[in-house]
């Protein structure tokens, strides 16, 4: 019998962002990053290696992926085959548990779950640090989704030294995110291509790396001190600097829509009125509001002027990866 292994990984949102590779082959980032893993959004993936298969079969939300889309996943399975000695092709079924068309479906939870299920199904028993290194080869942000709570990805200088570890888990204080899910628009450029362009063309890139490293130090302290205000201010500034790289690339690009700016303004206004809330943005139009649980009602009420209730999703700190064998 072929073993089927299922892994569940939660997505994460970076508070100090990864936005550029130093080594695209090994997926080494230009700077370290810090994230919060979320409970609400996750991917569940099952992998079975099977000598009856003539090629990898990848099902995504019950749909068989066409070869062009399956290629990145198959290449990642090749890496697992190469390391494990496993020679068979695999059947992969993956389900993304995010609200329909939320635009939050991230490669982070996807490649973290695939690394865990795939490596175990191939007969490897990796520890969490090795899993984090392996997930990195699928997608940078997946490096962090192996772990729960607040997580830091150390940039490192080679395959061995570039991995994530827990900064704080469980998170025993009142911090959460409200995802403001905006209308899906066609992404102007993928994360992979966008970050490659800014590294190659933004004149501000060296300043980004310098300030991001400073942000890492300050963010570690804010998390250890459970200081929501410091954490939020560092995250907000760091996110805007990341987006400033995109605006300063050649050619320039951005992920904002008019609704993105509306949500940013709402958060800024709430804060001016004394509510402890902050925003962060990734490679898409959605805004994530960093806040305390006890402010949920007041924040939702302010945003209800612009957005429908189902566009506002509260997410708490979430757990690390789980793996089950059948
Ligand atoms: C992050 N993002 O730190 C940053 C902030 C989006 C904005 O990592 O090329 O899918 O697969 O390593 O990880 C999204 O990019 O890119 C991302 P690849 P990835 O979360």
UniProtKB/TrEMBL annotation:
Domain Mvd1 C-terminal: start-end pairs: 178-311
Pfam families linked: MDD_C, MVD-like_N
Swiss-Prot/TrEMBL keywords: ATP-binding, Lipid biosynthesis, Lipid metabolism, Lyase, Nucleotide-binding
EC class: lyase
InterPro entries, per database record: GHMP_kinase_C_sf, Mev_decarb, Mev_diP_decarb, MVD-like_N, Mvd1_C, Ribosomal_Su5_D2-typ_SF, Ribsml_uS5_D2-typ_fold_subgr
Gene Ontology BP term (one): isopentenyl diphosphate biosynthetic process, mevalonate pathway
Coiled-coil region: none
Entry GO terms, CC: cytosol
Membrane spanning residue stretches: none
Enzyme Commission identifier(s): 4.1.1.33
GO MF term set: ATP binding; diphosphomevalonate decarboxylase activity
Stretches assigned to the Diphosphomevalonate decarboxylase-like N-terminal domain: 9-164
UniProt cross-references to SUPFAM superfamilies, sorted A to Z: GHMP Kinase, C-terminal domain (SSF55060), Ribosomal protein S5 domain 2-like (SSF54211)
Family from the record: Belongs to the diphosphomevalonate decarboxylase family.
NCBIfam families, sorted: mevDPdecarb
Name of the featured protein: diphosphomevalonate decarboxylase
Taxonomic source organism: Lactiplantibacillus garii
